[in-house]
Every structure is written in structure tokens, then in C-alpha cells.
Design goal:
alpha/beta; binds uracil; globular
């Protein structure tokens, strides 16, 4: 009998196996695109309607993360939903459940699992990175890949460890496909959750690891080279008092640019001094 070699004759599992055999083992986009359609039908331009004026500053960026069909109104709704869900969480477990239930982020669909946090939630110092990569997505914990190994060494050099006295999370809780950088809309929709996360942990000091976390949480356009090494205050509505915050280079950047490690070391020493002054470490 003649074998049917047509792709359409394959079961979904066989088709997936075929892709893997061809080396296609990454999801690169959040949405499946039908490239046979004319572009206007793939990503309709959303014109502000009378009921949704273009006044909301975040709407343009957030619209990009929501399903195109939702348009600006859907994006504003997602932003509101993120804020409401985050504010309602009274414990870390509730916050984790809130993030899991939030459907406004497309990257949730391509990620394997949520990456919430690691370390000791009672710790008095909290580190906030950018977004999970492939290793974190597989294991479900932040900073477990090569940059995480360097971060652990950096923490160890000033007497910190995630097992004992450090707590770690990310601005984004889901891996962006193909390890791309999170876009502005994804960051905007994730900010209410990471802000609430910091409020609930209420550490004595917070460290923003890398430019994405630093810019997003300090609401600045300045780059990490300018921001790093300077103490500032992190403020959020539910905090009784601001939390001292410092930014430092991301370990992934330090792996690519080892000549910058001396600056990272200076920042670590500054952190160590601050933690001593706050009575966090002896
Ligand atoms: N980079 C990050 O910013 N966070 C992780 O969890 C892993 C890599």
C-alpha cells in the first residue's frame, strides 16, 4: 500500500514531532499568524472611538499586548483588571493566584508555567530581575540558569543566599517566547503585580537587577549605567514608608561584559554596607 506522505495526514503529535525533528523547538510569537491574510486583517489598526479617547497614556502600549480584537477598550480593561487583582491580594499565595488568573498577558499562553519567586519570603532584602528565561520557564523558579548562578555567587560574596536571607522575583512572571525582551505593554500589565509583591514582602531594601526592572519600578527612562550604584527610594501606595532601593547590572550583562564586574562589586559592597546599617546582616 502506498504511504500517505502529506503533512495534513499527520496527527497533531506527529506534526509536532516532525517540527522538533526539523529543529523547530521554540515558540517565537505569542499569536499564530495566518500569513496568507493581508496585513490589515492580521493586526487591525485600532482607531480610538468616542467612548475610548486617546487620553489614557498607557493605552497605546498596553493595546499591543492584548488580543488585537480587544482594541484599546480591552487594553484599558486589562490594565484595570491587573490593578484590581493585584490590590486585592493580601498574601503572597493570593498574589500568586491573582497572577495565574490574569488573562490579559499573551505570553502566559506560550510559557510553560508561572515563575513567581524564590528564596525566603521573610528575607529583608528582595531582588527583582526582568523575566524568566528558558531554564526558569522549565523549572518554575527565577534565576536558575547561568545568570542565576552568577547572581547566587554575587549574593554569596556579601553573605546572602536565597536559602537563608534573600528573596528573588521578576517584573514579568511568564517567559517571553524565544527569550525576547518583554515589551512595554507586557511590562505595564505586570507592574501592578510586582509592585504589590514588593509591598507584601516589605523588605528593608530592594535591589533592581538590570535596566528593565530598574526603569519600570523607578518609572524612569534613564539607563542602567546611570541608575546603578545610587540609593533611591521605592514608593508604593500600601507602604508605610519608602523602601531604600539600589539598581545594579544584570548578571547576564556581566557575563557578556566581564569588564563591568568591578562596578557590580562596588554596588554589592554598597548593598552590604546598607544592609549592615539597617541591621539586616552583621
Ligand atoms: N533573567 C532574569 O531577569 N530573571 C530570571 O529569572 C532569569 C534570567
Amino acid at each position: 500500500m502506498e504511504e500517505n506522505l502529506s503533512i495534513s495526514a499527520l496527527s497533531p503529535f506527529q506534526l509536532l514531532q516532525f517540527y522538533v525533528d526539523c529543529g523547530v523547538d521554540e515558540v517565537m510569537g505569542d499569536e499564530t499568524l495566518d500569513r496568507t491574510l493581508i496585513p490589515e486583517k492580521i493586526l487591525p489598526m485600532v482607531a480610538p472611538s468616542a467612548s475610548t479617547p486617546s487620553a489614557a497614556p498607557l493605552s497605546g502600549t498596553v493595546a499591543a499586548a492584548s488580543a488585537p480584537a480587544d482594541g484599546v477598550a480591552g487594553a484599558i480593561e486589562s490594565m484595570e483588571e491587573a490593578r484590581t487583582l493585584a490590590a486585592a491580594a493580601q498574601t503572597l499565595d493570593e498574589l500568586r493566584a491573582a497572577i495565574d488568573s490574569f488573562k490579559g498577558l499573551g505570553i502566559k499562553r506560550t510559557a510553560t508555567q508561572m515563575v513567581f519567586a524564590d528564596g525566603n519570603p521573610q528575607a529583608r532584602v528582595m531582588f527583582v530581575g526582568e523575566a524568566p528565561g528558558a531554564d526558569e520557564d522549565r523549572i518554575g523558579r527565577p534565576f536558575v540558569g547561568v545568570s542565576g548562578q552568577l547572581l547566587d555567587k554575587m549574593l554569596g560574596s556579601i553573605g546572602l543566599s536565597r536559602e537563608e536571607n534573600a528573596y528573588i522575583s521578576n517584573v514579568i512572571n511568564w517567559r517571553p517566547p524565544g527569550n525576547r525582551a518583554p515589551d512595554d505593554a507586557e511590562i505595564a500589565l505586570s507592574l501592578p503585580f510586582i509592585r504589590r509583591h514588593i509591598e507584601l514582602v516589605n523588605p528593608a531594601a530592594v535591589v533592581f537587577v538590570g535596566g528593565v526592572a530598574a526603569k519600570a519600578l523607578l518609572e524612569t527612562t534613564q539607563g542602567i549605567t546611570r541608575l546603578r550604584g545610587k540609593w533611591t527610594d521605592f514608593e508604593a501606595p500600601a507602604l508605610v514608608q519608602p523602601i531604600p532601593a539600589i539598581c545594579m547590572f544584570h548578571p547576564a550583562y556581566l557575563l557578556r561584559s566581564p569588564q563591568q564586574k568591578s562596578l557590580a562589586w562596588a554596588d554589592l559592597l554598597s548593598l552590604k554596607n546598607k544592609l549592615r546599617a539597617l541591621g539586616v546582616i552583621s
